[in-house]
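Re: weekly structure request thread

Next one in the queue (135 aa):
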Amino acid sequence: MQVPEVLPLVITPKLPDGAKLIVAQSTRAILMQLNSKLSEVKGVGPKTAEALAARGFQTFKDLLYYFPRKYEDYAAYTKISEIRPGKVVVRGKIRGLRNIHTRRRNFTITQGEIFDETGALRVVWYNQASPYQEF
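Done, posted below.
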């Protein structure tokens, strides 16, 4: 007895009485080979395929196995008293947030203070009213 390479998996959802399940796409359209060229992928036109090829992406597998070379972890944060020069992530509460409107048209400075149990840090956003509205 031969066993097929790929066993079909059919999942039939439980439908209310009288409802019918309509499959809009064929299984052939849903299944994609990893070695399929990107130009064969629905929604990828010639210009997009050319731009991706210029960056080294030829197949669907190339995109699937692309991992960023650098990752910034924002989950790990530093206490304010332990901050050293460089890039840091702090976690705290905000107080004293205010907008300063300058004479220059459409230019706003938002100032405030972030504090935690170890200290406080003065923060400034230039021309971004959204931090004030979010907090």
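The first strand starts at residue 93 and ends at 101. The chain has a mean pLDDT of 77.
Next request, please.
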